Amino acid sequence: MECRVGCGACCIALSISSPIPGMPHGKAVGVRCVQLTPDNRCRLYGRPERPVVCVRLRPSEEMCGQTADEALAWLFELERITHPTATPPDPSPGEQNPEWLAI
Q: What pTM, to 2 d.p., does this model score?
């Protein structure tokens, strides 16, 4: 799968702890990357300055959904459930797919 041109969801929703040109301390969840153009394209795409975490992130149908809004929702939920301070609810006995895991 290829990135959807003009989506930019991963450049907005995800936190990045490594330095980004123009953001030496990385970026927080929901903060628009300074390298994202007004039409949601990465200024660093294909350039050596692009952070390794960005290079390694690969689009998938699950992550990207059908729209940028679906991608944002999925990525924000991923950030929520993987945050070090997240406390997921205990699933009911026998529950196969607890609500907090549904992305």
A: 0.76
